[in-house]
Design a protein that fits this description.
Helices cover about 35% and strands about 30% of the residues. By secondary structure, the protein is α+β, with helices and mostly antiparallel strands.
Length: about 180
């Protein structure tokens, strides 16, 4: 008769041993997955501290100063540089031609008269609305353009062009920046 008090565990091949090996494999797989996640996140370049600071400032209710507005415009322009932007209107999505793209993002370059409208919450996202003068087809009728900037991604998400007289030729569309 075998003395079970000195045995080091169940006999090899028994269901209990197989269960221990399965648990060990699960633990090993979990550890390797976590290690890969840590290594991958460590390899990603750290975000620019100035961008982090700007994002935090954009979430505050107070209006942006002229200098902060300039920083935001520069950052948005940098974020969309060399990237494709798609516009979505009621009849579908399209990539704007060079003239339309220049019109939409002119507000980032030509900052004369540009001001911060403040924050707007819509669809679970927070936007900072930039408002500036638009190029009117009629010198007697004032036009404005508004660019909605997502405060998390610092990407433009909506563009609106309106005349002082409603219905004179207003239009708006959503924007999607593609990598």
């Amino acid at each position: 008769m075998t003395d079970r008090s000195t045995a080091s565990g169940p006999p090899l091949g028994s269901p209990l041993t197989t269960r221990h090996l399965s648990n060990a494999r699960l633990v090993l797989a979990t550890v390797l997955t976590l290690a890969a996640a840590v290594v991958t996140s460590a390899c990603a370049p750290p975000e620019d501290p100035a961008r982090v600071e700007l994002r935090a400032r954009l979430k505050q209710e107070t209006r942006l100063s002229e200098a902060e507005l300039g920083r935001l415009c520069d950052e948005v322009a940098r974020s969309i540089e060399k990237k494709s932007v798609r516009i979505t209107v009621h009849d579908g999505a399209a990539t704007p031609d060079a003239d339309r793209r220049a019109e939409v993002f002119n507000v980032l370059r030509d900052r004369a008269g540009l001001y911060d409208e403040g924050l707007k919450q819509e669809g679970g996202a927070t936007y900072r609305i930039l408002n500036g003068p638009g190029d009117s087809k009629n010198a007697e009728i004032e036009a404005t353009q508004r660019l909605w900037v997502d405060v998390e991604t610092l990407l433009p998400r909506r563009y609106e062009f309106t005349y002082a007289f409603q219905g004179y030729g207003d239009y708006a569309f959503d924007l999607a920046v593609e990598p």
